[in-house]
Amino acid sequence: MHKILLVEDDIDYGTVMQQYLEISGFEVIWLTTPENTLDMLKKEKFSLAVLDIMLPVKDGFSLSKEIQMLYPALPFLFLTAKNQNIDRLMGLKSGAADYISKTCDPEELKLRIDNILKYAESAQTQQYQLGNYSFHPFQLKLTHPKESFRLTERERDLLLLLIQNNNKIVHRNVILEKIWHSSDYFSGRSMDVFITRLRKYFIHDDNIQITSIRGIGFEIDLALR
C-alpha cells in the first residue's frame, strides 16, 4: 500500500481529502503544520508528499526545497486554493510532479496521484546503456567497467535531457529553462561547466561525444540499448 504524506492546514479540506484517499486504498499521514514534516519523513517511508502552498509559518515552496535536499527521490505535488498562473509556474519550476487546485474533482486528484506513482516506480528501474557505460538516472549513477561516477541531480537531468533528444540539437535556451530555470549569463556559464563535466565522465569511450553547436546548443550521438 502506498503511503502519502499530506501537509494541509485547512481542517475541513484535509479531513475530506484524507478520508477520500484512504477509501481509494492509500495510507495517509496528515500534518496540519509544516514544522514536523522532516521529522515525519525520517520516521516513515512515503511514496508521495502532497503539500498545500499556503501554509502557516512556512509556505509549500519553501517546504518542498527542504524536502528535496534530504529526499530528492520523493515525488511531491502542490495543492492550492489559488488558480493563478504564477503559482502554477512556480510550483512546476520547483520540481513538483504536479500542481492541483483544491477545487478539482476528487477522482481527478486520485488519477493524477496514480500517474505520479506509476512514473516514480518506472523511474526507479530506468536504465540506459551508453556504449560501455550504464546510466541509472534514479540512482544518480554512471558506471563503466573501469570506473563509476556519482552524478549530481543537475548532471543527471542534463544528461537525461540530451539522451532523450538523441541525435538532435538541444538548444541552449531549452536546457536553461528546463534545468536552470534561468537564462541569465551566469546560468549559461554554469551550463557550460556541467557540459564539460559530462564529457570528462565519458573519457573511457571515444564513441560517445557531446558536440557543441556554437551559439545554438548541444547534441549527443548514441546507439542506445
Automatic annotation (TrEMBL):
The modification 4-aspartylphosphate is found at residue 52. Gene3D superfamilies: 3.40.50.2300, Winged helix-like DNA-binding domain superfamily/Winged helix DNA-binding domain. Residues 125-222 bind DNA. The keyword Transferase does not apply. Keywords: DNA-binding, Phosphoprotein, Two-component regulatory system. One of its GO terms (molecular function) is phosphorelay response regulator activity. The keyword Phosphoprotein applies. It holds the Pfam family Response_reg. Residues 125-222 form the OmpR/PhoB-type domain. GO terms for biological process: regulation of DNA-templated transcription. Transmembrane segments: none annotated. Residues 3-117 form the Response regulatory domain. PANTHER family: PHOSPHATE REGULON TRANSCRIPTIONAL REGULATORY PROTEIN PHOB (PTHR48111:SF40), REGULATOR OF RPOS (PTHR48111). This is DNA-binding response OmpR family regulator. The lineage of its organism: Bacteria, Pseudomonadati, Bacteroidota, Flavobacteriia, Flavobacteriales.
